[in-house]
Specification:
The chain has 158 residues and is α/β, with parallel strands linked by helices. The chain is 35% helix and 20% strand.
Length: 158
């Protein structure tokens, strides 16, 4: 698969950021990179059974403005520019509020390491833990194909 532009897809952020934690004197005077954080959510969508509207899959887009999450749109979140784009897809058993907090923590760490401005996209999918663990695993397994189609749609737009 060929992706135009500069895109990083990460599922295990630790692999991306491994390396020396030492800070040189040059880094102390460095201007902090700026970032944009977007949530792309499919949590509100019904199961599509491996079929989505490729023109408009009705994903929700929200932008972190530094204080709170505000509604955004697909064109703003997925705009084409020279900014490095990082796509983060959280794992299983993740409540929405935990995913939103985790991406902000990730952003604060990335800012310390970044040498240039970037856009951080969180793909948030319905993976919250249910009361019956075995049933929960089967339900998340059933929606995994739908969610992969949504992630593929986002990557295709980028």
């Amino acid at each position: 698969m060929h992706l135009c532009g500069r895109l990083i897809v990460c599922s295990v952020i630790a692999l991306l950021l491994s390396g020396s934690q030492a800070v040189s004197s040059d880094c102390k005077n460095k201007v902090e990179a700026t970032s944009e954080i977007f949530e792309i959510s499919s949590r509100h969508l019904q199961d599509q059974f491996c079929s989505i509207n490729e023109d408009n899959p009705s994903l929700e887009f929200n932008l972190w403005n530094g204080v709170q999450w505000k509604r955004s749109d697909v064109d703003t979140a997925l705009r084409h520019d020279d900014k490095l784009t990082i796509v983060y897809v959280h794992g299983n058993f993740m409540e929405r509020n935990n995913a939103l907090e985790r991406v902000r923590i990730l952003d604060s760490y990335l800012k310390k390491q970044a040498k240039e401005d970037y856009r951080l996209l969180l793909f948030s999918w319905p993976s919250q833990r249910e009361r019956k663990p075995l049933r929960d695993i089967y339900e998340n397994d059933e929606i995994a194909e739908d969610q992969s189609l949504y992630v593929a749609w986002v990557l295709r737009q980028l």
